[in-house]
Amino acid sequence: MPARDRSAERRGVLITLEGVDGCGKSTQAALLCGRLAACGLPVGPASTPGSVIREPGATPAGEAIRHVLLHGPAHIAPWTEALLYAAARAELVETVLLPELEAGRVLVLDRFVDSSLAYQGFARRLGVDEVLAVNEPGLHGLLPDLTILLDVDPVVGLARAGGAGDRIEAEGLEFQERVAAGFAALARRWPERVRLIDGFRSVELVAADVEAAALEAVADAGLRLGA
Predict the structure, then answer these.
(1) Computed over its alpha carbons, how large is the radius of gyration of the chain?
(2) Are residues 93 and 140 in contact, defined by beta-carbon separation less than 8 angstroms?
């Protein structure tokens, strides 16, 4: 039996930031939360207003899975990796995202399902549709209102990240180039929600474009500034 689609019950807005490692999405996500909160919008979970939600993570189960995925054994079978990400995401959707969106809040995520599609589906060559299929039961029909894809050359991204980093960053340049190609494919497939933004500029210029795209998504959802 397919999972019940609960996405229609939400009154809030879901904005995700994506890109290769070192693209600057974590910095931009934090800046975006601050700017949206300054506009009077109810940003982040009610328990931690103004905060970014990182993924995987943001729940006790998700944080435990995050540790295994990013700092666990050097080799994890590709499908094991994909299923662990899907499990952490399902917990996040059920316990955090859907309740907060149903309450009308604006949520900014540092990664979401598109990362699995690019990293495991495309770069690990498991298949984008196949990885999406294993995530769908836990998503309950939830997809972002807006996905901001920061476009940065993987060479630049790895240099920004510095060193070997976590288990995924340690995969190296060839892997990150496949990830970048995967994200580009997702942008072509879902142009109605994926907004490509040049991340190879100053933090301030990128932030201005990110904010403009986010405010457009908020307006489209019918939320009023200062409400």
Answers:
(1) 17
(2) yes
Give the rounded percent of residues in the chain with a pLDDT score beyond 70.
94
**C-alpha angle 57-61-63 in degrees, rounded to nearest 5:** 35
Identify the CA nearest to 123 among candidates 60, 169, 72: 169
Helix (H) or strand (E) holding 194: strand 194-198
Tens of pLDDT, residue by residue over 46-99, are 999 999 999 999 999 999 999 999 998 889 999 999 999 999 999 999 999 999
Phi, psi at 60, each rounded to 5°: -55, -45
- Residues 166-222 have pLDDT tens digits of 888 888 899 999 999 999 999 999 999 999 999 999 999 999 999 999 999 999 988
CATH class of the domain defined by 10-220: alpha beta
Point out which residues pair with 15 in neighbouring strands: 108, 146
Cα gap 176→155, rounded to integer Å: 8
Locus of tokens 């809030």: 12
